[in-house]
Amino acid sequence: MPSVCTFTLNHPNAVYYSGQTINGTISLTTTSEKNIRNARIIFLGEGKVKWEESTTTTDSNGNSTTSTTYYRSHEVYINNETIVRGEGILPVGVHTYTFTIVLPLDCPTSCEGRYGHIRYGISLKLDRVLRFDNTYYIPLTVLKTVDLNLNPVFRLPLLAEKVASLCCWPCSGGKLLYSLQIPFGAYTPGQIVKYSLNIQNHSMVDVEGYFMEFTQKMTFTAHSPSRSHRHEKRTLVTRDYPEICRRLTNRILNGEFQIPSVPPTTDPTKIIYVEYRLKVTMIMSGCHRSKDISVPIFIGNIPLRESLPSNAGGMDATPSAPEITKSEDSSGSEMPPNYNDLKPPSYQEAMQSDSPFVDNDVDKHHRVVGFKPLYPVYS
Asked: Which keywords describe this protein according to UniProt (predicted)?
């Protein structure tokens, strides 16, 4: 029988925030002796971006040549190795090792995409003599705290406005004025986003309905052999509405949707940039093209207090994110709110990419493809 390895963590769901401490034990049950150089516990957090592009050229003699360029980026956020057993014979039986790992405060959030990922994992590696190494591995979710209350701009409503001239001979024309508004600029997964579509139809063309889309766009940046970008765009939520706005009339159309389990918006300067938009597309009658309008939505993992339902208060549970305390010398400054009355979130699997990233640098026997991080979802 093969050896069996189990990992026990102080957070059973294997979700941690940057700055927190991971405590756990690894229990290895061996069924035969193993001659090892050492046994190591490795905690690795890294970001990888990788893709390839092929081009084919044909010379004057009709001979074709194909060249492939491999684009990549690699960042290491934490690489912690501890030798838990030295050289010698590892006997048959149960071997238990404990570990403690402090996550840096600036660890970016785990995320998975088509052309790269940010991933954290713990492994026990047996460096064997004259044999293939044995590696036992589990991935974790690490979350960088993104508290929406710390940016006052997020409390303001977002408004986008457009004017379209409708003219398609021999149809009559006119102007269409329309706007899209949401009450806040930022939300967390699980929250309901209410939106308002204001249509002033000064034309002779009917609006026959509209559909909304909540989209995620991931931008992957490679730094080698040259700086290049790849994009992955996914529609996370979509709905159709047969709401009609007749010619020469005005209408205000209200709707809502729920933010699914997704990673927060990230820094656009990083190798993986995640952003979100709400887009509404109106279907025009006759020969006229559809008209669309959109607003960006910033996603965090601690919600705005103003955006919470009125019945969210009065609860004495604390969130799982690190507590933010008031320093002694900041009594006169604007401080983040107290989270004692915030209902803690549940943690749900992320919506998975249709084509998950495959890290070919990792041996196929130890490779984890399609890992789904857990993100906080507020109900």
From this structure: Sensory transduction
- DSSP element (H, E) containing 29: strand 21-30
By CB neighbour count within 10 A (0-12 exposed, 13-18 middle, 19+ buried), where does 141 fall?
A: buried
User: What is the model's pLDDT at position 310?
Assistant: 67
Over the stretch 87-104, which tens digit does the pLDDT of each residue have?
999 999 999 999 999 999
pLDDT (average), residues 174-195: 96
The angle subtended at Cα 120 by Cα 114 and Cα 124, nearest 5°, is 125
* For residue 341, pLDDT beyond 80: no
pLDDT of residue 362: 86
- Residue 14, Ramachandran bin (φ over 0: left; ψ between -120 and 50: alpha; else beta): left
174 pLDDT band, cuts 50/70/90, is confident
pTM: 0.88
DSSP tag of 105: T
**Tokens 């990233």 sit on residue:** 357
Read off the pLDDT of each residue in 115-126 and give the average, rounded to a whole number. 96
By the 8 A CB rule, do 9 and 24 touch? yes
Nearest Cα to Cα of residue 284 among 160, 198, 166: 166
Q: Where are the beta strands (DSSP E) in 148-296?
A: 158-168, 171-182, 186-187, 192-203, 207-222, 228-241, 250-258, 272-284, 291-296
CA 217 to chain centre: 10
The DSSP line for 34-89 is: EEEEEEEEEEEEEEEEEEEEEEEEE-TTS-EEEEEEEEEEEEEEEEEEEEEE-SEE
Domains and CATH numbers, the chain: 4-53+68-143 (2.60.40.640), 148-307 (2.60.40.640)
Q: Are 185 and 165 in contact (CB under 8 A)?
A: no
